[in-house]
Structures are given as C-alpha cells and as structure tokens.
C-alpha cells in the first residue's frame, strides 16, 4: 500500500504514528534474554514469540519494537496490531497495517476492531472502503467491527445502513451482526430501528440468542412498550434461553416507563425466586415505582429483608420517588437519615433533595442544602440549577440572581438551564429578565427566550415580546406559552395575519391550547370584517377537543356584533348564558340587564357591544 494512501472519509488523513521506543528503524534495544528452549528458534519465530508475550501484557511499545527487528510478516504485524488494539492504541495499529507490505483480511479486521474499541467510526468506515480498493474481500467480521464502532459512537443510522450494505454485497449477517446493530440503535435512543431489525433477522434465518433478546427488551424499555418487553422475556423462557438479571432489569425499566409499578414488582419477585436478584435489581425496581413512593419503600424493605445492606443509589432512588410525588417532607426525611444509616451523601442525592424543595415556600430549605453541598464540595451546575428552580417557583428573583453570582465565584460555569431558570424567577421583573437574556450572548436558548418573553408579556411590554420572538432561529422548537405570547403580541400590534399564521404553526407543532386560540381570536375579533375567522376558530377549538370557555364565546359575540351579524350574536350569547349557568353561583337573573341590552343592540345597529361592556362587567360582579 502506498504511504500516501488516504483511508479516512472526506479527505481525512491518518494520524502520524508513534514510532518504537528506539526511535524507528535502525538498532533496536535488546528485548531481553532469550527464553529457555527458544535458542534454536529462527529470528522470525523469536519475533512472533516476543509479540505474543507483548500481546498478553498489552505491551504495545514492545510489540512495535519487535516488528521493527526486520523479520516482520503479515502474521507478526497482526500480532503487534492486536497488542496495540488491546492497549487502545488505534493509531499505532493503523500505522502497522499501513507499514506492512502485504495486507490481508485478518490484519484489516484487527485494525477495524481497534477502531471499534476507540469509537473511531469514521476511521472504521474509511478502512472498510479501502479494503475493496486493496482487493481484500470484506467479510462478516469486518462489518461487525464497523457496526460496533458506529454503535459506541452513537451513530445508529450508520450502523443500520451497514446491514443494508452487507445484504447488497451478499454477505450473510450473523447473530453478532444483529446484536451489534441493535445495541447501536439502542445507544442512540432509536428503539424503533432496533425493532425493525427483527424482520431482517428472521429473513436471514438467524436464530436469536440472549444478546438479541436483551437488546430487544432494552429497546422496549426506551420506547415504553412494557407489554412487548414481557412478551420477549416470555419467549426467552420458551426457547430455553438463559434470562439474565440484565434482561429482567430492562423489562422492569419498561414497566416503570409506563407507570406499571405492579408488573415491575412482580418481575422483581421472579428474580428473587430465581436467585438472580442483586441490589441493583432493587434499585431498578424502586426507579420503576416512579411517584408511587409507598411502593418504593416496600421494595426497599424487601431489599433489607434479603440481607442487602444500605446503599447510596437505592436510598437516592427513594428520595427521588418522594420528590416525584411532591412528598417533600418524606423526601427530606429520607435524605437527612442517610448519615445515620452510614450512607455518605453524594452530589446526586443533594440534587434530588434540593429539587424536592421546589414546592410551596421551601426555598430556604433549598439554600440550606446547597450550602451543605458546597461545604462538602459536592455542588455542580446541576445542584445550583435545582436551587434556582426552587427560587423560580417561589418568585425569589433576587436570591436567584445571587445564586448565579455565587456559582460564578466558585468557578461553576452556568449553563442554559441556569439562565432560563433564573429568568423564570424574574417573571415579575421584566427588565431583569431582559438583562439575563442579554448576558447570555450566543449561549441563549428557547427556554431563556420563553422566560424573558413571558416576563415582558406579563408587564404588557408587547414590543419586547416580538423582538425576543423574532430573534429566535427558524429551526427553534417553541413551546405553547411562547406561541401564545407571540400571537397575543402580534394581535395587540394589529398584525392579525401574523397571529393567524403563527396559530397554524403552533397547531402543526402540536403546541396549542385553549389560551392560544383565545389569543388568536382576540387578535381578529376587533376587526370589523373578520367575524367569520372568529367563528372558524370556535369550530377549530372543538375539533382540537378543547372546551370553549366564556372568554372565547364573548369574543365571538363581539366579532359578530361588529360585523352586524345580530342573529349569530344572539345565538352565541345564548350559548354563553348556558355556559355561565353551569358555573358555580351562575344566575340568569343577575345578567338580565346585559341580555336586554344585547337584544336592544340587535334592533339598533348603532349600539355596539363595546358600548355595553361596562354594564356587562357590573352584571358579572
């Protein structure tokens, strides 16, 4: 192979190799005394013996030096490459492949394996492509290594495509191929891709083993398909495949993702019956209980009855279960009881305990816990973000800003969540919110913009809302609150067409609620000729399975009145009256003056509903 060969995709070149300790070709430092019984071996055999010894010790430097003795062969180079791969020295493995005068498939596969171990997926793909140019036939092992490299680098779709490439080259995927590809898809979070491989596995008559089923059950856990996970677990039993604790743990996780804590506990009991339960099994089951903290406590009691000692992860899981259920008193009690149980609290346990204080007026408790974490040097940006959340919930904007400054002084770099949460705490301080937005620079986020925009909207600063909204990149993912605020802001600026277009975008993104429709209706209700659009919005609300409220019907009445649609106005007003009658304390008699004036308006077009608003307000109070 010519030295200038470029094996990397997209014009990438291989890294410069690290030469042997002796500095490259030339005199090599002695490898030591010749072992007894090896005196009559040829130099080539001695080199291979030395290389095997280097491989066993992961001595990549000795292996490279041995190849430099001048008695190298494809087998010697392969042994040296194996030693480099075992020591995670993929650049040296690739150099040895490049430096050898005769390459073969075994050497290429060893180099691919080295790339896979080091997550060098692009190098692996480049080498796979170069094998064809070297007239070296790729085999199933070659692709298995490349798929493994993609999986470790979270390149799920690339791993999936490699199986298609194998089929195109008439290479039969093995059970290892599918297991590696499924693992790659799961690592990237693409559980749907994992399940699509089942049909291909069956098409190639590959019999699934324990690793295949483990990957399938893990994909169900990622996708929350607890029933399918239990089916796969049952199939393993019917096919006499050993069900490991890992298989059960994944199934328990799938049940937990769907809130099926009872099924998760049953699986834990089966693990115990099979004597496969570990303390990690109880940890997974507690996590599966989610906000059902009473059940989580029962699982912990069962763990103790089986002789397992106190465990940090298990106890933190209990605190998290209580926090998820907003049982802050129980969460803090469990957290503060950890030292008594001889469990040393860590950063994660502090984070969970502080999050539990993000309810009611517990911000002082959050600050106390943060101080304890700082004293123990256990705080991080996540710890501060948890404390900031408590400040945001309780509108403690001054303390939130002080926490940002304190984190900076401690060398803890704030992130997008930090700024967004602090900005949320400034909901009643729109100028402070804008200051935080400006301080973010290029590190802004949708979260931060939304918080700043809502603060401005609350202060009726609609121009600032639009400035913030229009500064967002087009590909930004917006939430329902920001859509609603922007639609309202456009309406207040008499830009009703933009309001309606934005409502369409919100519906397409499935980020609309009743308040979003009300904001859009408000934008068009004041326009004399747009009563049809308001009525269409009322119909759209029903199609979206929302229940129109009194505010939306009032806008419909107003729009029809301005458009001189008196019959429609009376019809909508009758529905408004029916809706009010269902409200607590609703009374038709109390609103008789308003009803009479609306009827009069229908007979006297000169009298508009804008003129009777004061009478309506008086009737409602």
DSSP strand count: 0
Structural class: mainly alpha
Query: Major sheet: size, sense and barrel closure?
Result: none
- The shape, in one word, is globular
Mean pLDDT: 83
In DSSP terms, counting alpha (H) and pi (I) runs of 4 or more, how many helices?
Answer: 34
Q: Percent helix among the residues?
A: 55-70%
- Give the N-to-C terminal Cα separation: 90 Å
Strand content: under 5%
* Rg on CA atoms, Å: 34 Å
The parts where pLDDT drops under 50 for at least 5 residues are 1-35, 601-621
Explain what the structure shows.
- Residues 1-21, 584-603 are annotated as: Disordered.
- Residues 589-602 have a biased composition (Basic and acidic residues).
- This is Pentatricopeptide repeat-containing protein, chloroplastic.
- It is a single chain.
- The protein contains 34 helices and no strands.
- Among the domains are: 1-138; 551-621.
- Residues 1-35 and 601-621 have low confidence and may be disordered.
- It is 67% helix and 0% strand.
- It has helices at residues 43-56, 60-67, 74-86, 90-99, 105-117, 121-133, 140-152, 156-168, 175-187, 191-203, 210-223, 226-238, 245-257, 261-273, 279-288, 293-305, 312-324, 328-336, 347-355, 363-375, 381-393, 397-409, 416-425, 430-440, 446-458, 462-470, 480-492, 496-508, 514-525, 531-543, 550-562, 566-582, 592-603, 613-620.
Set down the secondary structure blueprint.
Elements: H1 43-56, H2 60-67, H3 74-86, H4 90-99, H5 105-117, H6 121-133, H7 140-152, H8 156-168, H9 175-187, H10 191-203, H11 210-223, H12 226-238, H13 245-257, H14 261-273, H15 279-288, H16 293-305, H17 312-324, H18 328-336, H19 347-355, H20 363-375, H21 381-393, H22 397-409, H23 416-425, H24 430-440, H25 446-458, H26 462-470, H27 480-492, H28 496-508, H29 514-525, H30 531-543, H31 550-562, H32 566-582, H33 592-603, H34 613-620
Helix pairs in contact: 1-2, 1-3, 2-3, 3-4, 3-5, 4-5, 5-6, 5-7, 6-7, 7-8, 7-9, 8-9, 9-10, 9-11, 10-11, 11-12, 11-13, 12-13, 13-14, 13-15, 14-15, 15-16, 15-17, 16-17, 17-18, 17-19, 19-20, 19-21, 20-21, 21-22, 21-23, 22-23, 23-24, 23-25, 24-25, 25-26, 25-27, 26-27, 27-28, 27-29, ...
